[in-house]
Specification:
The protein is an alpha+beta fold. 15% of the residues lie in helices and 26% in strands. It is elongated, with a radius of gyration of 15 Å. The protein binds zinc ion (ZN).
Length: 81
């Protein structure tokens, strides 16, 4: 959907792209307990059936966070650093 702009559910070509902004709290997911670090989401929305897809913007801070999580050996796995 992100690349094709064709809905995966109904094959509609009426797919809207909503690029996330750091200024909009509804377009972010927290990467730590105090929401100091956030990942910003881009959304793709089908205008015919309402299906949505979300992609995290692959920023440098997101990659650092992901590397920390992926390097962790077991233990606390709540997604927070
Ligand atoms: Zn659709």
């Amino acid at each position: 959907m992100k690349n094709s702009f064709i809905c995966l559910k109904c094959n509609s070509e009426r797919v809207l792209e909503v690029i996330g902004s750091n200024m909009n709290q509804y377009q972010k997911i927290p990467l730590n307990k105090w929401s100091i670090k956030n990942a910003v989401l881009d959304r793709y929305i089908c205008a015919d059936c309402g299906y949505t897809e979300e992609f995290v913007q692959l920023s440098e801070s997101f990659q650092k966070w992901a590397d920390k999580i992926l390097d962790r050996d077991g233990g606390n796995n709540d997604g927070f650093v």
